[in-house]
Design brief:
CATH architecture of the largest domain: 2-Layer Sandwich
Radius of gyration: 35 Å
Number of helices: 8
CATH topology of the largest domain: Threonyl-tRNA Synthetase, Chain A, domain 2
Shape: elongated
Largest sheet: 6 strands, antiparallel, barrel
Structural class: alpha+beta
Order of helices and strands: EEEEEEEEHEEHEHEEEEHHEEHEEHEEH
CATH class of the largest domain: Alpha Beta
Bound molecules: zinc ion
CATH superfamily of the largest domain: Threonyl-trna Synthetase, Chain A, domain 2
Distance between the termini: 89 Å
Strand order of the largest sheet: 2-3-7-6-5-8
Length: about 400
């Protein structure tokens, strides 16, 4: 069993230890030590990184991952580098990445404060905690959390942070812990529980690394929430991460505000205004296209080939799109007894075949036959069908070919 030095001192960044085992599997070398300050991934908190140096050894070994063997209680250091000098019994000096550790302590301690705030204010228990590279999440056992509740919990958590309350590590038996009113007692049977005591605010069983006083958390910023199976997931960032996240948000908002030549607080108003303008411009454009289609249909019908029972309209529009030729086909078959074979180029070359109600062709079948030949997809009813074409030239060609197929 590895003596876990971080258990009693989260600020210990360097330590001396002896190698107890070295194993090599699948190209990864795992070192076990008699004592270690490296935190192994567990309880929602991710591992420390750093180096192991052997006296008289070559360059330091990089510790790229740390896990634990729950059965034996050993901390496993997965390293890369020259490991020849590492034998059981060898003395090593371990150094953990202090910046990464501080970040983890800020996130994890901030989570304790936030979970306690939700519990105190709304009796919402935290059922899980996850630490990611960018942000952390807690899952609250509840159906919903309102924006007002989020703001209140964030405010209380930040108040506790600025009050700079001492954070102490205590050890107690599970029975003692129960009488002390510990927030969450782990199900696993252990002789002694490690408790994190945030003075007069929270007492919780936890094996992670924490700050010495809440002021070191720096601050807490809640982000989005999401409904998950076990409740509501709340995203949070603490300390320097909160500042970095707020900085990124500010830069994004500043860029958006510059695009609208406005203040960042007016961005929503401007976006809403622009969306309304776009919507009404689209409506106006649609009305104009309808008018153009109407006029075009009338003029096309006048010059169309008269086949006795109907007028045949055949046309390819290199610059138009599918929505326009669909509109046009509908006008053509509504304005007169017509068969319309239309095609368009544009970004998405397409075909539309239509006929006035009561005529005897099957436009759906004709379209199926055409797209099969073109290797695209399409179909429709007897009177109106649409399909795709691989390119403008084959769309134009398909329209011409279809003329011989209508009776
Ligand atoms: Zn913790």
């Amino acid at each position: 069993m590895t003596e876990r030095l971080y258990y009693t001192d989260s600020f210990l960044h360097q330590f001396e230890a002896r190698v107890t085992a070295v194993s090599s599997e699948l190209g990864a070398v795992t070192i076990t030590l008699d004592r270690s300050a490296f935190y192994p991934t567990s309880g929602g908190q991710v591992f420390d990184t750093g180096t192991l140096e052997v006296a008289g050894g070559a360059s330091p070994l990089h510790v790229k991952d740390v896990t634990e063997n729950e059965q034996t209680g050993e901390v496993l250091h997965i390293v890369e580098g020259e490991v020849q000098a590492l034998r059981p019994g060898a003395a090593v000096r371990g150094t953990i990445d202090a910046e990464r550790r501080r970040d983890h302590m800020q996130q994890h301690s901030g989570q304790h404060v936030l979970s306690a705030a939700f519990e105190k204010l709304y009796n919402l228990p935290t059922v899980s905690f996850h630490m990611g590279d960018e942000s952390c999440t807690i899952d609250l056992a509840t159906e919903a959390v309102s924006a007002k509740q989020l703001q209140a919990a964030e405010k209380l958590a930040n108040e506790v942070i600025v009050e700079d309350r001492p954070v102490e590590i205590r050890f107690a038996t599970p029975e003692e812990a129960r009488t002390m009113g510990v927030r969450k007692i782990p199900p696993a049977e252990r002789e002694k529980l490690r408790l994190i005591d945030i003075q007069d605010f929270d007492l919780n069983a936890c094996g992670g690394t924490h700050v010495r006083s809440t002021g070191q958390i720096g601050g807490i910023l809640l982000r989005r929430t999401e409904k998950v199976r076990q409740g509501v997931r709340v995203e949070l960032v603490c300390g320097l991460r909160a500042a970095a996240t707020a900085r990124r948000d500010f830069e994004t908002l500043t860029e958006a505000a510059a695009l609208f030549s406005t203040h960042i607080w007016e961005v929503t108003l401007q976006v809403r205004k622009s969306l309304e303008e776009i919507k009404s411009a689209q409506k106006a454009q649609h009305r104009q296209l309808e008018e153009i289609a109407e006029l075009q249909a009338q003029s096309m019908l006048q010059s169309a080939e008269d086949r006795g029972a109907y007028k045949l309209v055949v046309q390819f529009f290199p610059e138009r799109d599918l929505s326009f030729i669909k509109m046009l086909a509908q006008k053509l078959v509504r304005c007169g007894t017509a068969v319309a074979l239309l095609g368009c180029g544009g970004a998405q070359p397409s075909l539309v075949f239509g006929q006035a109600a009561g005529l005897n062709n099957d436009m759906g079948a004709l379209m199926k036959e055409t797209v099969q030949r073109l290797g695209t997809r399409g179909g429709g009813t007897c009177d109106m069908a649409q399909g795709g074409a691989p390119d403008a030239a084959s769309a134009e060609d398909a329209v011409r070919q279809a003329t011989s197929k209508v009776g």
